Amino acid sequence: MYSFDSRVRYSEVSMRGELSTPGIVNYFQDCSTFQSEELGRGDFWLKEQNRFWVINSWQVKILRRPKLAENIQICTWPHSLKGMFGERNFCIRDEEGRDLIQAETLWTYMDVEKMRPTKIDEDVMATYKLEPAIEAEWKGRKISVPKEGEAKPPVVVGTGLLDTNGHVNNGKYVLLAMEYVPADFEIGAFRVEYRKAAWPGDVMIPVVSETPEGMVIVFKSRQEEIFAVIELERG
Q: From CA 183, how far away is CA 186, in angstroms rounded?
C-alpha cells in the first residue's frame, strides 16, 4: 500500500467546512500519481513509452467526510492487473486509522500512437505489488442514463479543464457536476463512468436528472455522444 499524510485545507472544503467531493477525487488522483512517480512508472516515463492510463470508472463510498484542518492519510493499492485493465482501491483514513472514504476504480492501459487499449507491459506488471481488495459491495461500473433530464447551458472545454494527456481531467467532470447539486443534498456515495474523452474546443451539454436514490448528471456532445455520467446518492 502506498500512502501520504495531509491536512484538510480551506481550499479543499465545501461550504459545510468538510472535504468536498471534488477534493476527494483530487486526493485519490494525487495518491496514485505519487505512487507511480516514486516507482519510476509515472507520467513522464509513460510518455517515453507512448503509453498512458485512462480511468474508466470511480465508485466512492463516504462514511464520514473529514473536516477543515483534520489530519488525514490517503492510501492506494492495485488489487488486479490483467490484460489491458487495472483495478485499484483508495481510502482516506483518520488519525486513528479508520476508513472515512473508500473507492474502487477501473483503469485501461493505452497505446498513444494507436489511441486504443493495449496489454499492460511486463515491467509495469512487475513494478506494482498487488494487495487484497477492500471487502465491500460495489455496484457495476456501468451507470444507467435516465431517458429524461433538464439540459443546462453548454460548457466549452478550455485549457483550465485539461490534464497532462491534453483532455478533460476526470476530476473536472466531478467539479463541473457540483454546480447542479442543491445545497441541501448530502452525497453519501457516488459513481462516475467515463465513456469518451473531451478535448479543447469540445462542447459539453450537462443534462441533470432526479432518481429515487439521488441524481444523475450526464455530459453529452451536441451529437448525443456521452463524455461522462455521474451518479450521486443521498447520504
A: 8
